[in-house]
């Protein structure tokens, strides 16, 4: 069986030729136009970037290399071999990189390859231990990823004059090393910030997700299943979202994958993006506390009341709305299915269910958001809480570990295809005024 790297090496020439022909045949044709609203409105839906690994449809949601989440759950290998279990993220990585559903043997090779690459450079652990306890875990993660960069094969090869045709290889090395090292980095941040600073023991018979859980200090097989699903569904959401786009943009300067991913993680750390998963849990806990103090139960009526208080104070409802999606996020739906299977009677899950009944109506009445339905961040926190993972300030770090799988897979193809520096055009308000004098 060919290794992942050999499989990719074999794919590159055909892929390069495909893009070359596409440019020759269609390079000067128009695929989109831009309105002034889009120019000042965050470039919503402007088609101006290619992304190999996934595509987002406003109504159907995400497809990874053409596969929906339920299809991934059906087709990707599982840890137990039981098809009803959750997919292994190692298999997803193979799919994101190669476009092909891997066999069990190929997935086992990736699990081993990641384990073999997982040792951190010596200075990283003391650095993480030196962080002030009050530093946000996402800030710690971004700094730690930058600290790993001393080991960048891409940076070393570039400095030594490596030819452009070899960039993919160094990007592959860095990306795999980085994905392999993220669990220990994240677990160190977690154990130092919230616990005794001691990592749990890994087991070579276990997979990436279960070993991540062991290092974090969790030993439940059901939580291992959740971590596998969690990493899989958080990996990629096409190219225009802020963390993916930031990684792609930074990488387009031939910054190495460490510098690029750190940039993406900084984007993920914003409350309108990945930090929303922390905010959602905070919102639910506030809701519980507020109505306990008011001597009322949490039900449809009090949730509606609390939602309006949030909206009337000028804040957003975290976990609802989306820049692209116009229906319930399938990443939400699969987490709901997980809860129905593993924790149907959990109190917080019941609250999330009730919020789901109420919130689309409230947001529709509020009349601002284009999408009144829940996104991925609306559900993830209550699942983690169920397994005793209560430190919600840490949740976006888990999103970041997952997101690395998608954005680094794309970064590999950015370099293999020789995609250029990203440099869109900006204009001044004066330019716009002048333009409309004649248009
Ligand atoms: N609660 C209240 N108002 C909301 C809202 C929400 N959940 N979602 C959107 N709106 C408001 C916007 O703030 C905007 O108001 P203004 O006109 O006053 O600026 C208006 O509705 C129109 O926004 P939109 O076009 O529907 O949404 P955007 O593409 O601009 O923004 C997003 C998308 C996700 C930032 C927004 O829906 C939001 O803030 N949601 C809450 C935060 C959240 O859950 N983020 C996580 C998204 C998933 C992820 O990346 O992890």
List keywords for this structure.
439 residues, mainly alpha, two-stranded antiparallel sheet, 20 helices, 2 strands, globular, binds carboxymethyldethia coenzyme *A, Citrate_synth-like_lrg_a-sub, Citrate_synthase
Topology:
Elements lengths: L3 H23 L9 H5 L13 E4 L3 E4 L4 H7 L13 H10 L5 H13 L7 H7 L6 H12 L4 H7 L7 H28 L13 H9 L4 H14 L7 H10 L5 H12 L7 H18 L6 H13 L17 H13 L4 H20 L10 H10 L8 H22 L12 H10 L1
Antiparallel strand pairs: 1-2
Bound molecules: carboxymethyldethia coenzyme *A.
The site of carboxymethyldethia coenzyme *A has 21 residues, from loops.
InterPro entries: Citrate_synth-like_lrg_a-sub, Citrate_synth-like_sm_a-sub, Citrate_synthase, Citrate_synthase_AS, Citrate_synthase_euk, Citrate_synthase_sf
Pfam family, one: Citrate_synt
Family: Belongs to the citrate synthase family.
Concise account of the structure shown:
Belongs to the citrate synthase family. With 439 residues, the protein is mostly helical.
Please give a structural write-up.
- This protein is mostly helical and 439 residues long.
- The protein is 60% helix and 2% strand.
- The chain is built from 20 helices and two strands.
- It has helices spanning 4-26, 36-40, 69-75, 89-98, 104-116, 124-130, 137-148, 153-159, 167-194, 208-216, 221-234, 242-251, 257-268, 276-293, 300-312, 330-342, 347-366, 377-386, 395-416, 429-438; strands at 54-57, 61-64.
- It has a two-stranded antiparallel ribbon with strand order 1-2.
- A hairpin with a 3-residue loop joins strand 1 and strand 2.
- Helix 7 packs antiparallel against helix 9 (167-194), helix 8 packs across helix 9 (167-194) and helix 14 crosses helix 18.
- It is globular, with a radius of gyration of 22 Å.
- The relative contact order is 0.14.
- The model has no long low-confidence stretch (mean pLDDT 97).
- The structure holds carboxymethyldethia coenzyme *A.
- It comes from Diacronema lutheri (Unicellular marine alga).
């Amino acid at each position: 069986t060919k290794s992942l790297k050999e499989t990719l090496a074999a794919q590159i020439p055909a892929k390069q030729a495909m893009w070359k022909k596409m440019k020759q045949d269609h390079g000067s044709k128009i695929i989109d136009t831009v309105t002034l609203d889009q120019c000042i409105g965050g470039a919503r839906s402007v088609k101006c970037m290619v992304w190999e690994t996934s595509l987002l449809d406003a109504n159907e949601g995400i497809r990874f290399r053409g596969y929906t989440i339920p299809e991934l759950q059906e087709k990707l290998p599982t840890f137990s071999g039981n098809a009803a279990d959750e997919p292994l993220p190692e298999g997803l990585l193979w799919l994101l990189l190669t476009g092909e559903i891997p066999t069990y043997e190929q997935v086992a090779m990736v699990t081993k390859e990641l384990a073999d690459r997982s040792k951190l450079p010596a200075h990283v652990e003391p650095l993480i231990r030196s962080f002030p306890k009050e530093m946000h875990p996402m800030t710690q993660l971004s700094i730690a990823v930058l600290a790993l960069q001393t080991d960048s094969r891409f940076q070393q090869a570039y400095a030594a004059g490596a030819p452009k045709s070899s960039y993919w290889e160094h990007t592959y090395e860095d990306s795999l090393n980085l994905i392999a090292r993220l669990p220990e980095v994240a677990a160190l941040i977690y154990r130092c910030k919230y616990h005794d600073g001691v990592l749990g023991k890994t087991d070579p018979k276990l997979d990436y997700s279960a070993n991540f859980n062991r290092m974090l200090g969790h030993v439940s097989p059901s939580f291992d299943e959740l971590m596998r699903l969690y990493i899989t569904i958080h990996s990629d959401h096409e190219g225009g979202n802020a963390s993916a786009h930031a990684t792609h943009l930074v990488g387009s300067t031939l910054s190495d994958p460490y510098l690029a991913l750190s940039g993406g993680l900084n984007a993920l750390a914003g409350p309108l993006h990945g930090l929303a998963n922390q905010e959602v849990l905070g919102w639910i806990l506030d809701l519980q506390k507020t109505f306990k103090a008011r001597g009322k139960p949490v039900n449809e009526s009090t949730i509606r009341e609390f939602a309006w208080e949030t909206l009337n104070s000028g804040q957003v409802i975290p976990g609802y709305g989306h820049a692209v999606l116009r229906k319930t996020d399938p990443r939400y739906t699969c987490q709901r299915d997980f809860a129905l299977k593993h924790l149907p009677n959990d109190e917080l899950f019941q609250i999330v269910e009730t919020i789901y009944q109420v919130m689309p109506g409230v947001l529709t009445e509020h009349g601002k958001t284009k999408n009144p339905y829940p996104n991925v961040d609306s559900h993830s926190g209550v699942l983690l809480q169920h397994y005793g993972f209560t430190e919600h300030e840490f949740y976006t770090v888990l999103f970041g570990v997952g997101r690395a799988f998608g954005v680094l897979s794309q970064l590999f193809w950015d370099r293999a295809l020789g995609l250029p520096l990203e440099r869109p055009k900006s204009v001044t308000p004066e330019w716009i005024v002048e333009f409309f004098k004649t248009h």
